[in-house]
């Protein structure tokens, strides 16, 4: 039995923080666990923190893209956060630019993106550009 | 380059049979990359290439061996890595190194991508005779 990557729930967001060097089976398990948790919790967003990952090869890269697609079909948006610069440079050279995957520099920005995406969807006032109640445009 | 340059450090040899061995291969190459003082980006590129090749050895080669060492060639220092398997081999090497070519299980970036991540790349294979891939990453 291999180790599993924990999936944490914070409000309507699921947080996956990958802290160990991933064996291929763990990657496949994570895909399944996360899909189940999205359905069970009705989560609207998924944040995958890869700041501890020293490398992302084509297998893990493809998993990130697959998870993002599956989550979208289940009504949740995925943001991958914390990619190291060296990993980003390597991925591009490898030929994997993860075009379909939303990314953010860190956890804070990732959660911020999911919150604003949700508020926009729910039509919460004050989130449209130049909203009248603030009197100033936020940049 | 298919054999280790004379004057290199002793070669480590490890079996690459199960998927857990891919993780082990990454760790060994990471250590060698640090010993040879590759830059962080070059370490990351080499370890990623080794990960692709190790997975190929397990998935397509039916398991095999990784040999690796800190390579020394005159004033040059780097890491030399070789993966060998006795699997079905690759019938068309040219095609196998094309982006997007895949035997069906992956995205077809493993071999071609790994080649872009290293400084030297040598692929030898024939149908029914297994595959040997040798790569070197030199310190800039």
TrEMBL record, chain A:
InterPro entries: Bact_StressResp_Reg, STAS_dom, STAS_dom_sf. Residues 3-114 form the STAS domain. This is STAS domain-containing protein.
């Amino acid at each position: 039995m291999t180790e599993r990557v924990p999936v944490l729930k914070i409000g309507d967001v699921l947080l996956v923080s990958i802290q160990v060097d991933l064996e291929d089976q763990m990657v496949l398990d994570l895909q399944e666990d996360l899909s189940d948790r999205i359905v069970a919790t009705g989560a609207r967003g998924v944040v995958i923190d890869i700041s501890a990952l020293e490398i992302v090869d084509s297998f893990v890269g493809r998993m990130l893209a697959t998870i993002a697609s599956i989550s979208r079909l289940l009504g949740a948006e995925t943001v991958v956060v914390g990619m190291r610069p060296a990993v980003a440079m390597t991925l591009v050279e490898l030929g994997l630019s993860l075009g379909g995957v939303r990314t953010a520099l860190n956890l804070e920005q990732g959660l911020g993106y999911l919150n604003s995406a949700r508020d926009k969807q729910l039509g919460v006032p004050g989130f449209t550009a130049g909203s009248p109640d603030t009197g100033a445009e936020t940049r | 380059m298919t054999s280790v340059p004379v004057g290199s450090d002793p070669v480590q040899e490890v079996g690459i049979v199960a998927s857990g061995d891919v993780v082990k291969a990454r760790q060994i190459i990471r250590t060698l990359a640090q010993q040879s003082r590759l830059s962080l980006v070059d370490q990351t590129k080499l370890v990623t290439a080794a990960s692709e090749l190790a997975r190929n050895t397990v998935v397509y080669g039916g398991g095999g061996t990784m040999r690796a060492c800190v390579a020394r060639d005159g004033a040059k220092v780097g890491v030399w890595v070789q993966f060998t398997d006795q699997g079905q081999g690759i019938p068309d090497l040219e095609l196998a190194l094309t982006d997007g070519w895949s035997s069906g299980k992956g995205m077809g970036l493993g071999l071609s991508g790994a080649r872009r991540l290293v400084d030297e790349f040598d692929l030898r294979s024939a149908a029914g005779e297994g595959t040997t891939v040798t790569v070197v990453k030199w310190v800039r």
